[in-house]
Amino acid sequence: MTWVQQVQDAREAGAVYFDVLTAVDLEADGFEVVCRLWDPDAKVEHLLATRCSREDPHVPSIVGVFAGAAWHERSVAEMFGIAFDGHDTAPLLLPESFEGHPLRKDFVLAAREAKQWPGAKDPGESDADLAVPRRRRAKPLGTREWPT
After folding, report:
1. What is the rounded distance in angstroms from the CA atom of residue 128 to the CA atom of residue 120?
2. Residue span of the structural domain in which 55 resides
3. Number of domains forming the structure of the chain
4. What are the DSSP E strand ranges found in 7-146?
5. Which own/partner contact pairs does 56-60 have at CB distance under 8 Å and 24+ positions apart?
6. 50 and 3 in contact (C-beta within 8 Å)?
7. Cα–Cα separations (whole angstroms), residue 114 to 80, 99, 108
8. Does residue 100 sit within a domain?
């Protein structure tokens, strides 16, 4: 089943609310384009996904099924470099002089190039971060402090 057919079938099944369309960089496995739809009557979400290769990243556009997907497709095209067949994805968020796709895992952060982190690991990955002193536990209201 094609990507557009998958989205169309979900809409016909009651998922009439388009929530979000984004992508995930799977590195060597390419990209996964993910769409979340909502069925308001059944109160059920539909999480749909399709994959595309890293060498030629493109998927069919779902703007014909959900017009609200246009902004999301433009964002994904700009941030991940994924083309959407049948949709002109003009730049949306970044300046015209910007080069690259910042949400790809192989994109080098300018801040890292300008100044290295002071430690061997990124913030939050150090064993020293685990040794943060804990707060004193609060006692429930109305309990007494008994002398020890």
Report:
1. 12
2. 3-124
3. 1
4. 17-25, 31-39, 44-52, 58-60, 83-85
5. 57/30, 57/31, 57/81, 57/82, 57/83, 58/82, 58/83, 58/84, 58/85, 59/3, 59/33, 59/83, 59/84, 59/85, 60/2, 60/3, 60/4, 60/84, 60/85, 60/86
6. yes
7. 23, 17, 11
8. yes
61 within 8 A of 6, measured Cβ to Cβ: no
Lowest mean pLDDT among 36-50, 85-99, 117-131: 117-131
Mean pLDDT of 62-77: 95
| Residue whose structure tokens are 């493109």 | 58
Are 51 and 69 a contacting pair, CB within 8 Å? no
Tokens found for residue 83: 């083309």
Q: What digits encode the pLDDT tens for the residues 57-67?
A: 999 999 999 99
Q: What is the CATH number of the domain that holds 35?
A: 3.30.460.80
**Tell me, what amino acid is at 144?**
R
Model pTM? Answer: 0.73
Q: Has residue 94 got a pLDDT over 80?
A: yes
